[in-house]
């Protein structure tokens, strides 16, 4: 089943607004700005936001934070697995971005009744973008049955705006890109020195062997300006070549 466009009722927008607030808290903490709330009988019973950088745990997505909080609270309260399952089956989850494959699988296992999300997750989405874990084949037939209802597009523009702000400010915890090291890269800032060395090498014969240019070039001895001009032109040419080479490194 493909996720349908989100419900825009006042209650849905109010709960998603709370999820947006959680995403803003994540953004302030330099986390990927995703937030969620879990609602039971029209009451918010859990909040969650991304904490992967803070905890140094890549599984601590907003949905995992919120459901983990409920599991811990209900287990400490003495509820059995069956009772916990019954509680989850009455819950609705509101999240600013489509749950990833990991989170969608967890939501399916826990038996949450419905999921409302904002923007799509084109790379890792588990509710229709990449996989459709909210629907599965349970009886061997070709018909897909819903594990949980999934509605998309609730306050999607606000969710996208938070992502845009996050990527504009940069992620200091992101791994540094690995680029191949070029053998000549260490000389990338040495092009003025190389050009100067070329100038010296080109000029030395003209400075110390003036008659050399006269013999080789068959120019009259009085044309003393020719040799420095030739050196200067060679220097400019060498300087320009090294500069262009530097731009490619």
UniProtKB/TrEMBL annotation:
Signal peptide: none annotated. It is a multi-pass membrane protein. One of its GO terms (cellular component) is membrane. It holds the Pfam family dCMP_cyt_deam_1. GO terms for biological process: tRNA wobble adenosine to inosine editing. Residues 10-138 form the CMP/dCMP-type deaminase domain. Keywords: Hydrolase, Membrane, Transmembrane, Transmembrane helix. Its main location: membrane. InterPro entries: CMP_dCMP_dom, Cytidine_deaminase-like, Vps55/LEPROT. The chain crosses the membrane at residues 190-212, 224-245. It is found in: Membrane. GO terms for molecular function: metal ion binding; tRNA-specific adenosine-34 deaminase activity. PANTHER family: CYTOSINE DEAMINASE FAMILY MEMBER (PTHR11079), TRNA-SPECIFIC ADENOSINE DEAMINASE 2 (PTHR11079:SF149). Belongs to the OB-RGRP/VPS55 family. This is CMP/dCMP-type deaminase domain-containing protein.
């Amino acid at each position: 089943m493909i996720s349908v466009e989100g419900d825009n009722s006042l209650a849905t927008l109010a709960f998603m607004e709370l999820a947006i607030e959680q995403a803003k808290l994540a953004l302030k903490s330099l986390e990927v700005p995703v937030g969620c709330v879990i609602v039971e009988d029209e009451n918010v019973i859990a909040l969650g936001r991304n904490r992967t950088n803070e905890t140094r745990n890549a599984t601590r997505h907003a949905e995992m934070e919120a459901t983990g909080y409920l599991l811990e609270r209900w287990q400490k309260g003495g509820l059995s697995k069956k009772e916990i399952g019954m509680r989850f089956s009455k819950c609705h989850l509101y999240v600013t971005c489509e749950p990833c494959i990991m989170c969608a699988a967890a939501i399916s296992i826990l038996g949450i009744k419905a999921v409302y999300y904002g923007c799509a997750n084109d790379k890792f989405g588990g509710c229709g973008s990449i996989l459709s874990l909210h629907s599965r084949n349970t009886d061997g037939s070709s018909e897909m049955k819903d594990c949980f209802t999934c509605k998309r597009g609730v306050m999607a523009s606000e969710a996208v705006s938070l992502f845009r702000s996050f990527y504009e400010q940069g992620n200091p915890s992101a791994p540094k890109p690995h680029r191949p090291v070029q053998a000549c890269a260490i000389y990338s800032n040495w092009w003025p020195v190389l050009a100067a060395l070329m100038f010296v090498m080109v000029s030395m014969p003209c400075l110390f062997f003036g008659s050399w240019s006269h013999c080789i070039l068959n120019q009259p001895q009085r044309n003393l300006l020719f040799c420095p001009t030739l050196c200067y032109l060679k220097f400019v040419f060498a300087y320009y070549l090294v500069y262009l080479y530097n731009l490619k490194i």
